[in-house]
Specification:
Protein name: Galactokinase
CATH topology of the largest domain: Ribosomal Protein S5, domain 2
Structural class: alpha+beta
Family: Belongs to the GHMP kinase family. GalK subfamily.
Enzyme class: transferase
Number of strands: 13
Pfam families: GalKase_gal_bdg, GHMP_kinases_C, GHMP_kinases_N
Distance between the termini: 20 Å
Number of helices: 11
Shape: globular
CATH class of the largest domain: Alpha Beta
Oligomer: single chain
Number of domains: 2
EC number: 2.7.1.6
Order of helices and strands: HEEEEHEHHHEEEHHHHHEEHEEE
């Protein structure tokens, strides 16, 4: 199934490239989406996260262009096209996908990388609007494609991720942390990736073969994410300033309580989510490694409650979906909202033997706002960005 999905995507993006540019692409690059198991809104607070890459990806076909001109075709947007000159000042476009492409080129130029013109086709199968980070996979794939085409050997996977984050922050306009890009660049197959978002060090946390990762879409499209995300970031920075630290990662749970005098209740609750979420994330990595599903379930339940009550990024449909899933799973698996919030998906980790029962149970007890059924996406923990050759990563 995974190989078939990749083959279909490869065929689609290659054919689009040939149809548009009349030649085969020089190379194909694929970068995965991700699901975050625990550690929400901690990354831009220099904290800890535990995502894993998934077997849904964005693929970029690229070949040499003429001069300093970049031509792009977006297969997933009705073959919409964009053209820009690498020497021109970045100009924001109405269509967001164009800003991602232009932003990556500008970010590489900001780093002193010399780029030549390119022809590009882009296609992906990361579900849109689900909080599975299709934008980060696009950014990482483009950064890798540009650097490979121009034979820039100096950028490692972490630097590719930082380039993609810079593009999001400075050109696309979302103040995201590093998690999405770093896991898309550096993930290891069969494992989650524990990331220290300050040092950018990573540690693979194996996921047992008999465990399934299920993403369940609530049917609520995520809304107002960028503005709310940026607002939360400002609130967290204000709380960090109150505690006299560089980032909320530096605040202990004891300090959170002792030094809260003078901090408004909203900022305090935002800080409490981040401080306690960091503790939960480190504990969850240990529980996952030990196969302690009861502890993992407990930590994921607490994480969801914190996102709901302290960080206020869930919506009623998401809360209901988590509640229903937890009723069936109990201590045999964990379930929580995943992603930036305000709709989108929940993530569940449970034995593969529970997958069918969970899907039936959710369909019996949950309806999407438009009266339909939740969409289940079964994910395999996958590896990070890769250059493809004859369909195989290397």
């Amino acid at each position: 199934m995974i190989a078939e999905r990749r083959a279909l995507l490869q065929e689609r993006v290659t054919q689009a490239f040939i149809d548009d540019y009349g030649t085969e692409p020089a190379l194909l690059v694929a970068a995965p989406g991700r699901v975050n198991l625990i550690g929400e809104h901690t990354d831009y607070n220099d904290g800890f996260v535990l995502p894993c890459a998934i077997d849904y990806e964005t693929m970029v076909a690229i070949g040499p262009g003429s001069g300093s001109q970049v031509d792009v075709i977006a297969c997933d947007f009705d073959s919409d096209r964009d053209s820009f000159d690498l020497h021109a000042v970045f100009a924001k476009q109405a269509e967001e996908w164009k800003n991602h492409v232009r932003g990556i080129a500008a970010s590489l130029t900001d780093k002193g990388v010399t780029l030549n013109g390119a022809n590009i086709a882009v296609a992906g199968n990361v579900p849109q609007g689900a909080g599975l980070s299709s934008s980060a996979s696009l950014g990482v794939a483009l950064a890798k494609a540009f650097t490979e085409l121009n034979q820039v050997g100096a950028l490692n996977e972490t630097e590719l991720a930082l380039t993609a984050q810079h593009s999001e922050n400075h050109y696309v306009g979302c103040a995201c942390g590093i998690m999405d890009q770093l896991v898309s660049a550096r993930a290891e197959r069969g494992a989650a990736l524990q990331i220290d978002c300050r040092s950018l060090t990573t540690k693979a946390v194996p996921i047992a073969e008999d465990l399934a990762i299920m993403v369940i879409h609530s049917g609520v499209q995520r809304g107002l994410v960028d503005s709310a995300y940026n607002e939360r970031r400002v609130q967290c920075e204000a709380a960090a300033a109150h505690y006299g630290v560089a980032a909320l990662r530096d605040v202990t749970i004891a300090q959170l309580e002792v030094e809260k005098s003078g901090l408004d209740d909203l900022s305090y609750r935002r800080a409490r989510h981040v401080v306690t979420e960091n503790t939960r994330t480190l504990a969850a990595a240990e529980a996952l490694k030990a196969g302690d599903l009861a502890m993992l379930a407990k930590l994921m339940t607490e994480s969801h409650a914190s996102m709901r009550d302290d960080f206020e990024i869930t919506v009623p449909s998401i809360d209901r979906l988590v509640e229903i899933g937890a009723e069936l799973l109990g201590e045999t698996g964990g379930i929580r909202m995943t992603g930036g919030g305000f709709g989108g998906c929940v993530v569940a980790i449970a034995p593969k033997s529970q997958v069918a029962a969970l899907e039936v149970w959710v369909n019996e007890h949950y309806q999407t706002p438009d009266g339909g059924q939740a969409r289940f996406i079964l994910c395999a923990p996958s590896s990070g960005v890769s250059v493809l050759s004859d369909g195989a990563a290397h």
